[in-house]
């Protein structure tokens, strides 16, 4: 059956991202016959970027008169921007006209709007942000990446269940290996929340493999790494920072003199091949999970390819019926615990 | 005046690290006329690695009959290993026979022993671990790196004062830029501890520049980044993991076929130049601060060059009189706060 994804046009530079989002959408529907798209935003702007593509059928436009700015506070957005592209796109998911929503806008506002409109799944206290990061083994999924700064062991446990189900669905792995992020010194291993979550996970039906340290996320071992939003965000941002730094020093080494520049030139295809493994565009698309509906957040600085990957991620979540799977797995865990 | 540093021989592979530590010590005293060294460990083993170097004068041996194993619990070490190389080396600092101690041993045991023997500085609740990491701007100092998993705002504030004084002393910067590690979303920016520490730092005499995110640590901006031990440890380990991953993919790209291998060969000097900027050996040596004495922890996997850098770091701390400076700056902050 054909699925439908809404794309919210949000502030991503000029024209509310239309120059990135519209070509990505056009290319996506060309390659994906089973998914229709609804572009949500100012109709006149979207039309300017269609370049003759036909509207109606598999690509529709839903007009929305407002946009959420990157610096709008979530509470203000909820109160005053009821016809924003973000709100309208999520409303379409709520009322069943679409199966998922993709947005590159203000994360806080997107999360608040999604939570307000879609509501949480039963027994889930908070939404979490999950995304994959590159690793030697391919990639690793990590959550939470910044939605929740203070988490108790129940929250960490819920993250583990949600992460496991999402990864199982989108990666087609029967029982993803789930790990808790921790630090190394034996005598002070972990804070109380982490230790308690560890006990709960050991008694769960998840494929829990125990603690991993920060370096393991980028090496191998676990499919899903669970941590609170503060630590997850710092790890993710540290990864970005280190990659930027290494690229900086690599460029500098090749730019030292005429000779190194010449070598740099013939090395280009190799470095290109290397970069494709850690290309952040491949890893674009973070999911807000724990909601009664699928919402994918694209990086605000995404280009066309990266944005297409975010839509692709939404498509996989829809195909895997992620929200429903999470709900039933959480129910199962609760039944286990009460026995 | 000549300074004296004790070197504890600890488990670092075979022979309690003698094959790494002794050559590092010999090379260090050759290049540093103002510092004498005391090697602490089993005399017979140390002597086997001296290769004819003269004992007495600038290089002395202090026999210790026991070693701390990497998996010994700190409490067990305190109770039962009173003649360990670590304990004897720190005792020499306590009794004034040496100005600092360097060890590559068990971090937890080293911290517990240092705290037990040397005691904390007045008004400092907990020791912290500080080290520098590479960044685009050169390097950034970060603390705490794993000594304290749960920190309140007072602890974070103390870390900031200690970090600022240490960096001022060893880098010769009048007023190092101090930042608090935080995450990006405006609406949930930081947990309570971080927000409260932020207020305290804004009212302090430190050169406090506000919040930075995880990527900034490896880019530029701050001289000292303050965070709790859990987050700091994860950021540091994430950095190691990402560097390992990038090196892996770089090697793989150059090893694809005969042609890429040939290019890899002529690229070697460039990659070598590049690597020297992010060489972990350059950044070896973490200081345990907040104690009435100087204790430097070398990485357990250090080679000779890396271990020499750890001794070098201890020398700089001694020259900068770091413990005394921290004590007087903390006193000053308390006086400011009580006014």
Which two chains have the most extensive interface, and how many residues on each? A-B, 68 and 68 residues
Beta-strand percent range of chain A: 15-25%
Instruction: Give the strand line-up of the largest sheet of chain A.
Output: 3-2-1-4-11-10-5-6-9-7-8
Going by CATH, the architecture of the largest domain in chain A would be 3-Layer(aba) Sandwich
Per DSSP E runs of 2 or more residues, the count of β-strands of chain A stands at 11
String of helices and strands of chain A: EHEHEHHEHEEHEHEEHHEEHH
Radius of gyration of chain A over alpha carbons? 21 Å
SSE diagram, text form:
2 copies of one chain form a homodimer.
Chain A: E1 3-8, H1 18-31, E2 35-41, H2 43-48, E3 59-63, H3 74-80, H4 85-94, E4 100-103, H5 107-118, E5 128-135, E6 138-143, H6 153-171, E7 177-181, H7 192-202, E8 207-212, E9 224-226, H8 229-254, H9 258-278, E10 286-289, E11 294-297, H10 304-319, H11 322-338
Parallel strand pairs in A: 1-2, 1-4, 2-3, 4-11, 6-9, 7-8, 7-9
Antiparallel strand pairs in A: 5-6, 5-10, 10-11
Helix pairs in contact in A: 1-10, 3-5, 4-5, 6-7, 6-11
